Amino acid sequence: MDPRFATESQVTVTATINGTPSTFTVPAHRTLLDALRTDLGLTGTKSSCTEGECGACTVMLDGKAVNSCLVLAAEVDGHEVTTIEALSPDGGSDLQRAFLEQGAVQCGFCIPGQVMSAEYLLSHNPDPTVEEIRSAMSGNLCRCASYNRIVEAVRTTAQERVNSRG
Amino acid sequence: MLTYYRARTLAEALEVLGQKDVEGRVLLGGTDLLVGLRHQQGDPPRVLVDLKGVTDLGDPITVTDDGLRVGPTMTMAELASHQVVRSWYPALVEAAVEVGSVAIRNRATMVGNICNASPASDTAPPLLVHEASVRIASVAGERTVPISSFFVSPRVSACGRGEVVVALELPRPVPGTGSAYLRLTRRWGVDLITVSVAAAVHGDGRVLLGLGAVGPTPLLVELPSGLDLQDRSAIDGALEEALVVATPISDIRAGADYRAAMLKELARRAVQAALESTRRAGDGSPVRN
Description:
The complex is a heterodimer.
Chain A: E1 10-17, E2 20-27, H1 32-39, E3 58-61, E4 64-67, E5 80-82, H2 94-101, H3 111-124, H4 130-136, H5 147-164
Parallel strand pairs in A: 1-5
Antiparallel strand pairs in A: 1-2, 3-4, 3-5
Helix pairs in contact in A: 2-5
Chain B: E1 3-6, H1 10-17, E2 24-27, H2 33-39, E3 47-50, E4 61-63, E5 67-70, H3 76-80, H4 83-88, H5 90-96, H6 102-105, H7 110-115, H8 124-129, E6 133-138, E7 141-146, E8 151-153, E9 156-157, E10 164-171, E11 178-184, E12 195-201, E13 207-212, E14 219-223, H9 232-242, H10 256-280
Parallel strand pairs in B: 1-3, 2-3
Antiparallel strand pairs in B: 4-5, 5-10, 6-7, 6-10, 8-9, 11-12, 12-13, 13-14
């Protein structure tokens, strides 16, 4: 047996997490989701289905929305990860406030993932239609079924951002 | 027990994957592989060989006068927004935009999708009707397999142990070619197919259909030459004969009878959509998605 593969490897990862360079060592099998929550203490990202069906663990990797449960921590070495914690120090970004104002938050468990998917959508489509919002966020499940209010929160935020840019 | 290995060259990757006592698997997007690892499906790999840091695989996508070459790291999202793909292979775009969710498509690769060799793969039917070839490398060298013989059985492809798919090659469609992909699912977003059909009406007159989730592998069939695509009863007759290769089963998504009935209807609609696509071909209008 090749000695490189005889034991489970510990992988040392250096990545930019929410703008700050960070180095941590994890077993090879650890997902980005588990590394964020367990090794880095960033518990805003939620763990639910852990198989890419629900979107609760959505983060951005190099600016693109991904399911952090389907990425190994080892894979983000040299890359940039942005989690819900980066949006505002107190959970009060314009989009997060819109979720509250629209009453889109019931149990709240899916909301960090919903917000990250919405931010990703708005990053490349600043003024989406309702259909585009529904389609872009179809990978984020809400078992309280707040979908209409979530869509409304994203739509009003997009309009406010477009208006404020004049 | 698992080891993560980030290969820097293809030779490094092939050396590790070729070791007899190492249960190695290629890691690309990981959107299917990590689900399998969590549920410990099949023989769990000991070594995941990540190809995303390999520097000698060439560009993720290359366009030539003869066609297109797609490398292993090209994601579904990148593929679906590529202008040449959108213009030459509309069925492939219509399939790529339906795989999983936005977050899945940002990570999942087309090469990974076909290497999983699922009979319900979305990109397999369009690749079949556009007559793709698969370039497979091992320490012994490279070989090319037509995609029509790449799928062997559920979850088994012609890419064997110690081998890596280094590219999918698509011939440039002859002028006047159009294609379309239609899929039936239980809900609108984020679902695996119950049945799917890709159709290509080639500029040289050939009409090919790629069928998803109605057999142990994705299937390719050709309709008889000279078929009048405006003649509904002629098409129905041709489909009746061509679709006998389908052997749908009953499972969690649908019963066998329902699948067979929907296959015929989807095939009829896909042929018409491909025909409409030939009329749009070359005029620069965007594909449906």
